Amino acid sequence: MAPSPKLEKFQKRGVVRGKLVKVSYFQEQGLEVFLDKLKAQGWYELLTNTQIGCSQPDVAEFYANVALAGDVLTSTVNGVLIEVNAQALGVILRVPATGFNLYVREDKSLVSKARLLELAQHLSQEPGLRSPQAVKKGDMQPLHQLLFWFVIKNIIPRAQGRNQADAMDHCLIDLLD
After folding, report:
1. What is the DSSP secondary structure assignment for residue 165, as one 8-state letter?
2. What are the residues whose beta carbons fall under 8 Å from the beta carbon of 10, sequence distance 6 or more?
């Protein structure tokens, strides 16, 4: 039986271990504040551990079969059903799982318009903004540029839209900050 197009797509992608934070690089650049933020958020161990490994074919199959309903993630790998909720996934990864069901890119109603405006003003360094809007990376302070880079490379990877932070990015940058 031929693999599904979705499985073929994921078999061509790199796997999680490419998402490591090189501690020495950030220390050399004087950016320990970023490492401190990772520690405060509970992500430091996961993103700096070079010993964690995984099977690329199994990861590809997992992603090809993944489905999300509410806060429950399901998938199958080698015929085995995997079902886990956000809290359990947080325990497995040893990271905080709070807010999993709140920040959805398509639903901005969970964050008030006033809060979205406040975030846009803060990130763009333009207190005179009158309505929430995407913020260009070049308009951000260096620390916020670094946090935005971390978001688009590790939390919500993307191939396009790497120069503008949308409302979801604003919230994630704010949480990391």
Report:
1. E
2. 59, 60, 61, 63, 64
Task: Taking each helix axis as running N to C, give the angle between helix 142-150 and helix 32-41, from 0 to 180 degrees, rounded to the nearest 10.
Answer: 50
Give the residue extent of every domain in the chain: 1-101, 102-177
Give the integer Cα–Cα distance in Å for 76 and 68: 13
74 by DSSP, 3-state: which? strand
pTM over 0.90: no
- Separation of alpha carbons 62 and 28, rounded Å: 37
For 36, 96, 104, 142, 167, the CA distances from 173, given in Å and listed in that order, are 14, 16, 15, 12, 10
Q: Computed over its alpha carbons, how large is the radius of gyration of the chain?
A: 18
Distance CA 87, CA 109 (A): 23
**pLDDT tens digit string along 13-34?**
655 544 577 888 888 888 888 8
Cα–Cα distance for residue pair 39/32, rounded to 1 Å: 11
* Residue from 164, 127, 83 nearest 173 by CA: 164
Tens-digit pLDDT profile for residues 134-160: 899 999 988 899 888 888 887 777 766
pLDDT, mean over the chain:
78
As a whole number of angstroms, the distance between CA 43 and CA 36 comes to 10
